[in-house]
Specification:
Strand order of the largest sheet: 1-4-3-2
Helix content: 10-25%
Structural class: alpha+beta
Number of helices: 2
Distance between the termini: 38 Å
Largest sheet: 4 strands, mixed
Strand content: 25-35%
């Protein structure tokens, strides 16, 4: 029924001005304030909407994934912009010193998680190993 509909992502944040700067200036996404919140337009035509919520609680899971060609270059570039990557040392989830969980033949080649100013979890994902 919905296979031909357009979809968009949406989640709450604390401070629209702070997240606007982050998404626009750090991540390079087109961001436009509206009376209801912050409209995001991705270069591939995807869209998102962030809305202020006074009792916002950050998601405890990844709300937005960015597919990248080179996980190391993406992490290095975001770190230069001041982004801090999460570090995990769990039985099924371990990141290296850069904050990247590297695949051992299953799943994506690499994934690294970071948070927006409202504490929501985002990631960069390299789907397959570079040739």
């Amino acid at each position: 029924m919905l296979q031909h509909s357009k979809a968009f992502f949406s989640y709450s944040v604390t401070d629209i001005a702070a997240v606007e700067n982050f998404y626009r200036d750090i991540l390079g996404i087109k961001a436009e304030q509206t009376p209801e919140g912050l409209s995001l337009t991705m270069s591939d035509g995807g869209a998102g909407f962030l809305y202020p919520k006074p009792d916002h609680q950050p998601a405890t899971f990844t709300v937005l994934n960015f597919i990248v060609d080179d996980i190391d270059a993406a992490v290095d570039g975001l770190k230069k912009q001041g982004v801090t990557f999460e570090q995990y040392d769990l039985p099924d989830l371990k990141t290296d010193a850069k904050g990247i969980m590297r695949s051992e033949g299953r799943g994506p080649a690499g994934i690294a998680w970071f948070k927006d100013p409202a504490g929501n979890i985002l990631s960069v994902v390299q789907e397959s190993a570079k040739a």
